[in-house]
Amino acid sequence: MTQTDTGVAVTGVGLVTPAGADEHAFWAGLCAGRSMARRCDELAGLPVDFACPVDGIDLDLVVGGRSVWRMGRFVKLALVAARQAVADAGLSPEAWDGSRVGVVVGVGVGGVSLLVDNVRKLDDAGPDGVSPLLVPMMIPNAAAGEVAIELRAQGPSLAPATACASGSTAIAVARDLLTSGRCDTVVAGGAESVLTPLVVAAFAKMGALSTRTSDPAGASRPFAADRDGFVLGEGAAMLVLERTADARARGGRLRALLTGAGSSTDARHPTAPAPDGCGAQQAVEAALYEAGWTPRDVDHINAHGTSTPLNDAMETELVSRLFPHRPSVTAAKGVIGHTLAAAGAIEAVATVLTLEHGIVPPIANLDALPDGWDLDCVTKEPRRQDVRRAVSHSFGFGGHNVALAFERA
Questions:
Q1: Catalytic annotation present for 304
Q2: Has 183 been annotated as catalytic?
Q3: What angle do CA 237, 239, 241 make, to 5 degrees?
Q4: Residue 74: what are its φ and ψ, rounded to 5°?
Q5: Model-level pTM greater than 0.70?
Q6: What ranges make up the beta strands (E) of 246-332?
């Protein structure tokens, strides 16, 4: 039997991002190549006063119901994305066996704004001012728990936290749950919403954020010679994954095949990647091995591309060494900023859409690569390309590396 018969398929996608609150709006925004960064009132007075928020959607209204008051913003983002993905897959929680359905939602930080608000209440009013719902609302696994409740999913409900690789880790874990036979359906992805003064100030203090305050829309510049840091974003993306044979048997649409997943750890530094990219390469090679590909089989790379000096240099070293045939490269963070734990899941959806549409979105704000860099970066406008096999990279603080290998269905 072939990988198409025995592997794992993506049968549904859903997402809420700064570029759009559903698949179609997101794809149009990504292909337009226009940054969504803007100044934010809540960040006024900080050294970095801009970010990429999710606009144009009333999350409370969309989530609805009496339980919306008990959810943090990151949970609402995850729930909306999960609903979209399940509907896109043509599935219904009322019809499936919930004991065979898993939920895996990567979240890096959780409800930090809720924590900050309740610290203020504790200072102002004492213990009686603290919300009894603080703990269940702020913990990172709240997203996985609420999505499982919504979907009546009684299989494993997990919340991997591998920093900026969390969304991709969730997808890799979902693949394991399916191939092991533990689940028949897994809803997996990532969510994050930390656009608060405390978090923005902390990232700025460590030198991770772009300080291009005079030009927020031009601040996120993956792989550009003049990049100076990332722009913080928020969002969520969820994918429905099933064994390919099961999806075919029920007449489901195969949007893409997840043919391989690889993970590794640099074991070197809490924030800086290994400069030579050897740890990241280990994850990519593991994904290729699982997919049964050689590096030359890869047509396209959806890069992590944070717009930071260290990450982009490491990723360029990795891609140039492992893929000398120069597959096309894109990076979504120029448009939507860095959504932290959600990034890998959002970029996985972007990779699926590239495979489906035969279009590679451009990297926003990339005018010139540094001298000596030899990447085939897509810039200025979308590129039509017959992409059959693609790899999506995710790298996180702590040295976490994840690579996902997707193939056109």
A1: yes
A2: no
A3: 165
A4: -65, -30
A5: yes
A6: 256-265, 300-302, 328-330
